[in-house]
User: What shape does this take?
Amino acid sequence: MGRRSRERLYKAIALLLLLPGILWVLMPTVWMFSAAFSRLEQIMRWPPDLWPDPWVFSNFYEGFAFLPFGRYFMNSTQIAVIRVMGQVLAASMAGYAFARMQAPGKNLLFILVLSTLMLPYTVTMIPQYIIFQRLGWIDTYLPLIIPHFDGGAFFIFLFRQFFRSIPDELTEAARLDGCSYFGIYWRMMLPLSLPVIAASSILIFQNSWQELLQPLIFLHDNGKYTIPLGLARFRSSYGSSPWHLIMAVSIGAALPPVVLFFIGQRFLLSGIVVSDK
Amino acid sequence: MSGMAAVGAGGAERPRLSLRWREAINFYLFLAPWILGFLAFTAIPIVASLFLGFTKYNAISPPDFVGLKNFRFLYNDQVFWKSLRVTLTYTVVFVPLQLVSSLLLAMLLNLRVPSMRTIRTIYYLPSILPTVVTGLVWIWLFNADFGLINFFLYKAFEIRGPNWLGSERWVMSAVIISGLWALGGGVIIFLAALQNVPGEFYEAAELDGANILHRFWHVTVPMISPVILYNLMIAMILSLQVFTRIYVLTQGGPNYASYFYNLYVYDNAFSYLKLGLASAQAWILFVLILLLTVLALRTSGRWVHYSGGV
Assistant: This one.
């Protein structure tokens, strides 16, 4: 068999494996949509019938009115947007420092940054709670935002990898012209790193949007709930209840990260540089 | 070395720091957000948590030093061992499955086939959806009476599927299956790594007569081995800390069969206000993760190849 036809065969096999997988991957989403447009009775029917009959559009309206999910939605948005801005800024600054500057203690600090990846959140969780309680931050969004303004190890690493791949000549010239480090960072590095900014923004937004444990600990006033907390609380307090409404709300809850992903999708791969150049 | 001298040797110009000093100061300025955040929200809490692990503390009266009592309590606590066993079982089964399927999926998604971008997007979709949302959906998919999973089992094999989330025997399988559904993060990182493997390597291997398996073992795996190690460690660290999915899916039940470690830590800390005990528990997990990471790094010398300094 020639090389060409062998390549074709591999590709055909790959597609044959990937296509049935798509059904598996899409199944939960399909069910979610089906349930969101169905009446409650239809969800609890055997055999399952995924085609809503009749289509119920008022589930969305009722779902968002049922608990103040509209407000939770705004709360989650506010937290995620502020967190993304601060965290991307901090991560890019730290990444720039590690990639392009020399200083005593640099290697040790970099190891320290990476080793925070191993730290379980539960270790810092309790002292953080005590600190935030003393500061009067319980029932505010600060505990969900401010601790992330350290940039986070993974994102610092992403920016570092990217900045290392930028040729030295570019910045050397600017330095000889008397450009400050901040000038280089702000006017050259950041504009160049748009793919990393986009990729990290998407990932940080997702992290923030879906975070449950921290809101669970730091938010008690149910007007302040985030979307995941509202949904989880709902699940634990109403055992058997309007699941069709929950699914309608869930679609709303899934929308922002999905939309953001589609907007920034092309950067997601190019922004993640894992090898060294 | 001439830092100090340069400061003094200003002469007619205003005194200037040497370039090296300026660079170092800038470095620390740029790193300041991380350093401050690290000190306030990581370093100090780590030390505080270690201290709290040796105290009895309920967030109201001041912590009371009790020595090793928390650790002795945990040693005799059946629920603690149960939660540890649940978490380790999950990790041992889930991590290899996840790693292998992520790599295979990434390789398939790396092929140049028409409409691959769409296929990639579809496969990444589960990882975009918030965990709480997918958890709620899986509750229904696993439903014994109306769930799609049991419907397929019945249609395809005429099997009456189990009560997945309500049975001690099956709940772990359900947790693993729902976990394997969202492979996205690891796949993306593998995919990025695969795209960095130079095409010439494959061509050279092919000229030497290497078939697809040879190319996989002798080109792909060595070339992306640092990323395999990274994904392995992250998968391990995360699976020992599973919380959200379980909190929504089973809340630890039935009869503690899916009572993951961090659920118990959370309950001890915030449901029972045993903050000292929970700190001790958190530290035990931390030490476990450290040991496993060191083990992974130690053994990695044999199979991880670095082409340049990372």
Notes: The domain at 68-270 of chain A is CATH 1.10.3720.10 (MetI-like fold). Chain A has a mean pLDDT of 88. Chain A has 14 helices and no strands. Residues 7 and 47 of chain A are 43 Å apart (CA to CA).
